[in-house]
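Board notes (copied after class):
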Amino acid sequence: MVKVYGDLISGNCYKIKLLLELLSIEHEWVDIDILEGETQTPDFLAKNPNGKVPIVELSDGRILAESNAILCFFAQDSNYLPTDNYLKAKVLSWLFFEQYSHEPYIAVARYINLYLGLPDDRKAEYESKQEGGHKALKVIEDTLKQSAYLVGAKLTIADISLFAYTHVAHQGGFDLYDYPNIKNWIARIETTTGFISMDKAKSSH
């Protein structure tokens, strides 16, 4: 059976859980406590020398790291990854956008606030993330003016990847009030058959 190592409060880990649930892929979830240093143990580092979650251990023992690469692996030959080369490249472009232009701002601000409790020595860094986060949200908002999902009319892993941190962006200080298309998009994803919320995913483990 597929084994996933991760922290379900982390958007990068939750996005994997969400896709596996949508695809009805049976899996074992192994909770990893980042703050307790569980990604830095010799056993974990043997699986991922980068010392980060999520990672997936396949039934044959092979390991996959990096959340968006894991999404691509499981989405292959499913409705969540287009077969058309152009549309597939559009999905990939959003996955790169998520890691370079979205996650470093919204996820980091959320981490400082939610995980660390906004300590005084991180407040300046927290504030510095706000402009970049809102810039990323505006890109998503403007795209969703044109289509129901990020790549056309169907839910793809582009949406799943960006949903993970966007729907909890308020925990990093990002008010979604001025982003009505994003709020409607979030609602559409949450009504998808097989959807599991972050809270429900966490409480089930």
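Comment from the instructor: The beta strands are 2-6, 27-31, 55-57, 63-65. The mean pLDDT is 97.
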